[in-house]
């Protein structure tokens, strides 16, 4: 089976994959999740975070050929990791994730969406270098179909998100183009509009685009089904 490395999105950490890792393990994979810099247990100051730092953290976590699964924001650093080390990345799996378009940052991509549901919940830091999500609005945006216990766990662990890595433009080349990739579109997503996910997935082979009837947090709402889909893609 495969070595699977799971990468979280904005404000989250390895903790969000807690229900997916055991299922992938039972299916025979070596599955694990990491904290990107300044997330979870990683103590990097949030103002020191860069997209290169995210990329390097992923590269350092790979021991050999690896399937990279990226949620939401993590679509960017798993892509740059594949560009840097295409021989180590056996597949990219985007879970309701941003996929880099040439010369655009993640913030640029977000602005291309027809709707901006996340903006109402964003609270910028005083220095303008990071943001947090209003906890009163997090459930409606991220977790509306998730169990109460999982929502409480998430709200207790959400952290500030650095803006710098999301404002960094990316242009990918030959390395990235060599890596097989799949997209999992979340049809009830209230954070990244599903119609914009469809626009991003339109650049994939149609056979590698899959759908789940779920919110922005399938790792809590339907972890078994998500894990089995990742297994099938591998």
Automatic annotation (TrEMBL):
Keyword Hydrolase: yes
Pfam short name (any one): Abhydrolase_6
Keyword Hydrolase: yes
GO MF term set: hydrolase activity
UniProtKB keywords: Hydrolase
Domain of life: Bacteria
Domain AB hydrolase-1: 4-228
Official protein name in the record: Alpha/beta fold hydrolase
Species of the source: Thalassococcus arenae
């Amino acid at each position: 089976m495969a070595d699977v490395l799971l990468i979280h999105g904005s404000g989250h950490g390895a903790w969000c994959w807690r229900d997916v890792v055991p299922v992938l393990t039972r299916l025979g994979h070596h599955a694990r999740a990491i904290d990107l810099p300044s997330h979870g247990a990683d103590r990097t100051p949030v103002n020191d975070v860069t997209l290169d730092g995210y990329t390097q953290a992923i590269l350092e976590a790979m021991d050999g050929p690896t399937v990279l699964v990226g949620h939401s924001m993590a679509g960017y650093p798993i892509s740059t990791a594949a560009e840097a080390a295409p021989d180590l990345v056996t597949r990219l799996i985007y879970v309701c994730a941003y996929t880099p378009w040439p010369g655009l940052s993640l913030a640029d991509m977000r602005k291309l969406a027809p709707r901006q549901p996340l903006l109402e919940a964003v609270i910028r830091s005083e220095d303008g270098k990071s943001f947090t999500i209003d906890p009163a609005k997090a459930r409606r945006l991220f977790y509306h179909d998730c169990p109460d216990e999982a929502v409480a766990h998430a709200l207790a662990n959400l952290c500030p998100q650095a803006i710098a890595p999301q404002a960094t433009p990316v242009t990918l080349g030959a390395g990235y183009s060599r890596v097989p990739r799949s997209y999992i579109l979340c049809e009830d997503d209230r954070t990244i509009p599903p119609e914009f996910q469809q626009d991003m997935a339109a650049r994939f082979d149609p056979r590698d685009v899959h759908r789940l009837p779920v919110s922005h947090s399938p790792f809590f709402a339907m972890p078994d089904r998500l894990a089995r889909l990742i297994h099938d893609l591998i």
